[in-house]
Write a structure and sequence with these properties.
About 55% of the residues lie in helices and about 5% in strands. It has 20 helices and 6 strands. The chain has about 400 residues and is mainly α. A hairpin with a 6-residue loop joins strand 3 and strand 4. Helix 1 crosses helix 2, helix 11 crosses helix 18 and helix 15 crosses helix 16.
Length: about 400
């Protein structure tokens, strides 16, 4: 599993090239951080120089580098050899035209994408949007294990025309709009369309099973699990560890959590239209269903619709989805909810810790393989991760209660 500012953080960011073993050659000169930053920000992710990546890792750290890249990289990658004739100037114009920081602007960009590929069904548009951010080689965060989390999601092709590619890059550079990470919203919607009771990761040898529904793995459960796992890993491998709130804020940010819970609340709001799958036309005749842009518009921008009304009451609705009982601004049964939720979160935390373990101690060993070696139900490490998961779930309830 890769760095969190990918999803998924939960399955969310790709480890920079140097950390994946692409160390610079002996005859390469070291770069200044400022010069390296300019080159990295001007290149496509796959074209970044490993020497520059290593320089920036040493200067600012992996997680900071990933966060900066997500926010600041705004130069579209050059046309690739597999798409001859694509005009880079047209790509740049489309990217600049549709790149946005507002939800209204994001809806306009999705509408333009739908108009540009009218052959796509709403379900395919949803998959294409999610894959802009997660799970494909060209995604902002290309961690391939998203196939195991969302096994029924259709694989959508990389856009080959300049106009569509410009929209693709504009949307990729507009992941956080009006304080909400739409990438998390999209992963949650896809998981909710085809929920599974647990996530089985395909690895060499016996597969590794995370005892958490994919709907949680792809959203808030993965965020809380990464925070818990990183807190314990830092204590063991990168002391001194920071306090729990630091890890919660860094790996389960406000923007991430808003996108996470919005997926569940939108599903609740879609019940008035027969459910989310029915709205998207899943299983219906070709070209049926509500456009994805319209679902976004109703949920985020149109308060007099069923989706809009759900959004207006989203925190209370989501707490109800967790089984919470609300009185005023208090979840009265939170103590009864925290421990069973923390057990699921700790399963993800084990995988996250194993990722850090193999990076620190056993290069070349996959995270899921390391997790099989490290954990048993009674081990001290398992108990420490469970305790930290309890703390992160408690902070999550604090976050929710403050918004009731």
């Amino acid at each position: 599993m890769e760095q969190h500012q990918d999803a998924k953080k939960r399955l969310k960011a790709t480890r920079p090239a140097a950390a994946a073993g692409l160390a610079p050659q002996a005859d390469e000169k070291s770069a200044s951080p400022a010069a390296a930053w300019q080159r990295v920000m001007g290149a496509a992710p796959s074209h970044a120089n490993p020497t520059d990546i290593l320089t920036l890792q040493r200067a600012v750290g992996n997680r900071t580098l990933q966060q900066w890249a997500t926010v600041q990289r705004n130069v579209p990658p050059p046309p690739t050899a597999e798409s001859p004739g694509v005009r880079s100037e047209e790509i740049a114009r489309q990217t600049a035209r549709y790149r946005t920081t507002t939800m209204a602007g994001y809806v306009r960009a999705v509408q333009a994408l739908e108009a540009a590929v009218p052959q796509y069904t709403p379900r395919q548009i949803l998959a294409a949007l999610r894959q802009i951010y997660y799970g494909r080689p060209w995604s902002e965060s290309p961690t391939e294990q998203w196939r195991d989390v969302l096994p029924q999601s259709p694989d959508m092709p990389f856009p080959r025309t300049a106009g569509v590619r410009g929209l693709f890059y504009a949307l990729q550079q507009s992941q956080v709009v009006d304080g909400t990470d739409v990438g998390h919203f999209l992963t949650g919607l896809e998981a909710l369309l085809n929920p599974t009771r647990q996530v089985e990761l395909e690895i060499p040898g016996p597969n590794f099973v995370v005892n958490m529904p994919n709907t949680e793995f792809a959203t808030w459960g993965g965020d809380l699990g990464s925070a818990a796992g990183q807190a314990v890993a830092d204590r063991d491998f990168h002391p001194p560890a920071r306090n729990d709130r630091h890890y919660f804020s860094e790996l389960a940010s406000d923007a991430d959590l808003k996108g996470n819970i919005d997926a569940f609340v939108a599903q609740s709001g879609a019940a008035a239209s027969g459910g989310l799958a029915a709205m998207l036309g899943q299983g219906g005749p070709p070209r049926s269903g509500t456009p994805v842009s319209e679902i976004f518009r109703q949920y985020y921008l149109t308060p007099d619709t069923a989706l809009g009304r759900a959004h207006a009451n989203r925190y209370r609705t989501f707490v109800g989805r967790l089984g919470g009982k609300v009185s005023g601004r208090t979840v009265t049964n939170r103590d009864q909810l925290i421990f069973p939720i923390a057990h699921r979160v700790s399963s993800f935390a084990q995988l996250w810790y194993a990722r850090e373990y193999r990076r620190a101690s056993v290069p070349g060993v996959g995270a899921a393989g390391a997790a099989r070696i490290l954990f048993s139900p009674s081990s001290d490490l398992t108990l420490r991760l469970l305790a930290k998961s309890v703390a992160m779930v408690g902070l999550f309830f604090d976050w929710l209660q403050a918004r009731l």
